[in-house]
Amino acid sequence: xxxxxxxxxxxxxxxxxxxxxxxxxxxxxxxxxxxxxxxxxxxxxxxxxxxxxxxxxxxxxxxxxxxxxxxxxxxxxxxxxxxxxxxxxxxxxxxxxxxxxxxxxxxxxxxxxxxxxxxxxxxxxxxxxxxxxxxxxxxxxxxxxxxxxxxxxxxxxxxxxxxxxxxxxxxx
Length: 172
What we know:
Elements: E1 5-8, E2 20-21, E3 27-28, H1 33-44, E4 48-52, H2 58-66, E5 71-73, H3 79-90, E6 97-100, H4 107-110, E7 115-118, H5 124-127, E8 132-133, H6 142-154, H7 157-170
Parallel strand pairs: 1-4, 1-6, 4-5, 6-7, 7-8
Antiparallel strand pairs: 2-3
Helix pairs in contact: 1-6
């Protein structure tokens, strides 16, 4: 496994899929901090991160900035086209891409990438199409579990964690 780009759907993957809209029209989403740490670990190893979502949301924009996500694509109908363009721009192959999605609009990407995953609560057709199904639901650590799986295949995970912790302590 040689993953160089992690691309993630947002609603139902990084969140539990629920969308709260206040009477003021502001949308609220809930993100899992463990997923955020997984993304930080992946970035630490040099893996690029992309969020590709069908909706536009200020919450996603804020969260992507907090995590220093490399690429944010919002309001996307054709995720496959966006990903193919990104892969070309990064000069990598689709086999070097990990994608996690939860619903039928993710299938066109899932069938193209080198490694795919779904949260435990993804729709059945998606779970039957991916390489890895998390034991966790979307927004509840599914992304972290999948990233840990990738990182443990590509690195000595214990050394990576110790190095990450030591480096974080230096930069505090």
